[in-house]
């Protein structure tokens, strides 16, 4: 499935993506190895791009695979990139690889999300984040971004909520700016409204590297930081849109708690 961009002229779409990447026509034409005049003609519709030209320009613009298919269709060509369900037989090797990553991260939480931050897969340790939350928030499809910021979700447990909220809101804002995805935009607007948006606290650049998230569980505060891994070389739309978020203990007490919890699960 591709986005609904195929109803717009391909030149308009190319111009939108160039502007989203903050490139001038001269800069993009230099990167793509074409003349500025030709690029201008493509954007205004005075010239029709070839299939190879669409692929060349969308690669230089780092357009997501889903939207590359949309631009190809707008130019009159068939989509190039396949989109298969993660549960399809053809995706079994990918599922196995993802499971190895998740299992290998035990006893620490790790999960796989799609482009909209919907939960796709998770290891046993990650179930900690779902325990005791309202049923409507943990009913599939579970949206991790919503779960983190909803007042009845993990936000109710976060000791350092203003910092966490500012970081997550800023991260989503960057994704919206890079992709222009209307569904991401709607999710961003929804979750910003939970806590008043940008008034909740400043976003510190250092938080992009390691922001501890402190969550209260009973009489203990657990501290985590996380890393996000994406598949930059994937040629399948589904795989290209998946991300692994791996959580690590930010202190010795949290690490010991997670080890004890894993030992109790496995006897």
From TrEMBL:
All copies of domain HTH cro/C1-type, residue ranges: 14-68
SUPFAM superfamilies: lambda repressor-like DNA-binding domains (SSF47413)
Alphabetical list of Gene3D superfamilies matching this protein: 3.30.450.180, lambda repressor-like DNA-binding domains
Pfam family, one: MLTR_LBD
Single Gene Ontology MF annotation: DNA binding
InterPro entries in the record: Cro/C1-type_HTH (IPR001387), Lambda_DNA-bd_dom_sf (IPR010982), MLTR_LBD (IPR041413)
This protein's name: Transcriptional regulator
């Amino acid at each position: 499935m591709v986005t609904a961009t195929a109803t717009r002229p391909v030149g308009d779409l190319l111009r939108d993506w160039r502007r989203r990447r903050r490139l001038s026509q001269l800069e993009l034409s230099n990167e793509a190895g074409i003349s500025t005049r030709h690029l201008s003609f493509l954007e205004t519709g005075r010239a029709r791009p070839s299939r190879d030209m669409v692929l060349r320009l969308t690669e230089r613009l780092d357009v997501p695979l889903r939207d590359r298919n949309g631009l190809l269709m707008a130019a009159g060509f068939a989509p190039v990139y396949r989109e298969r369900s993660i549960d399809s037989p053809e995706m079994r090797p990918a599922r196995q690889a993802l499971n190895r990553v998740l299992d290998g991260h035990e006893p620490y939480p790790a999960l796989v999300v799609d482009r909209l931050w919907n939960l796709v897969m998770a290891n046993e340790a990650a179930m900690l984040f779902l325990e005791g939350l309202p049923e409507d928030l943990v009913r599939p499809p579970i949206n991790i971004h919503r779960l983190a910021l909803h007042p009845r979700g993990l936000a109710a447990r976060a000791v350092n909520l203003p910092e966490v909220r500012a970081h997550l809101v800023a991260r989503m804002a960057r994704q919206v700016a890079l992709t222009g995805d209307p569904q991401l935009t709607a999710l961003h607007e929804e979750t910003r409204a939970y806590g008043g948006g940008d008034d909740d606290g400043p976003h510190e650049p250092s938080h992009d590297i390691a922001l501890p998230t402190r969550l209260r569980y009973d009489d203990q505060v657990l501290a985590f930081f996380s890393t996000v891994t994406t598949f930059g070389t994937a040629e399948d739309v589904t795989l290209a849109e998946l991300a692994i978020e791996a959580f690590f203990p930010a202190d010795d007490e949290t690490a010991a708690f997670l080890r004890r919890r894993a030992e109790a699960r496995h006897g």
